[in-house]
Design goal:
single chain, about 220 residues, alpha/beta, TIM Barrel, 8 helices, globular
Length: about 220
């Protein structure tokens, strides 16, 4: 499976969000990653349904919506209607994760489950066959621009091993501190979706930054 690039608009210029989304449309990005934060599950508030709807009006690529919120079941249908193609919820935020995952799939969206840095891969054993994607947080969720946590590589390898028997086509997404300096190593470990925020939007040439991330597999032996 070729790896996908999902630039995170959390790092975009909010005063020029349409411009930045249209830039991603022209880029080699595969998805547009949208981080939704409620100020409760994570110590920050980003944006909600109206902004997702606004992004969808201008996006020509699938919206990869990452819900960093408590009790996400309340809003699954609303985010689907706002334009989400993928919906990822946190294992730590869901009381009945199996029910939540299948509710997302019933909406016609790809269903993802995210793990915080402290959460072990072993907790996925009874749900991994049901999901389309696992998102491994490589920083503590809530803020962009954080330093990558090196233990992520070990977790990717563990997840890949777990998925091989029951879900070999699983998307393994990495979010936080991803850039050209570590993209090839993440892919070599088993990741196939890279979320990149500051490394794209803070680059002198954002289009070139996306291209570099897309070509990172060329560095993998």
């Amino acid at each position: 499976m070729k790896h996908l690039i999902a630039p995170s608009v959390l790092a975009a210029d909010f005063a020029n969000l349409q411009r930045d989304v249209e830039m991603l449309n022209r880029s080699e990005a595969d998805w547009i990653h949208v981080d939704v934060m409620d100020g409760m599950f994570v110590p920050n508030i980003s944006f909600g349904l109206p902004v997702v709807e606004a992004i969808q009006k201008h996006a020509t690529k699938p919206l990869d919506v990452h819900l960093m919120i408590n009790d996400p079941d309340r809003y699954l249908t609303a985010f689907k209607n706002a334009g989400a193609a993928n919906i990822t919820v946190h294992l730590e935020a869901c009381t009945h994760l199996h029910r939540t995952v299948h509710a997302i799939k019933d909406l016609g969206c790809l269903a993802g489950v995210a793990l915080n840095p402290h959460t072990p891969i072993s907790l996925l054993e009874d749900i991994i066959a049901d999901v389309d994607m696992i998102l491994i947080m490589s920083v503590n969720p809530g803020f962009g621009g954080q330093r990558f946590i090196a233990n992520t590589y070990k977790k990717i390898v563990q997840l890949k091993q777990l998925a091989m028997s029951s879900n070999p086509e699983l998307y393994i997404e990495i979010d936080g501190g991803v850039g050209t300096y570590n993209a090839a190593q993440l892919i070599a470990a088993g990741a196939n979706v890279l979320v990149a925020g500051n490394s794209v939007f803070s680059a002198p040439d954002a289009l070139a930054a996306v291209t570099s991330l897309k070509q990172a597999n060329n560095l993998v032996a």
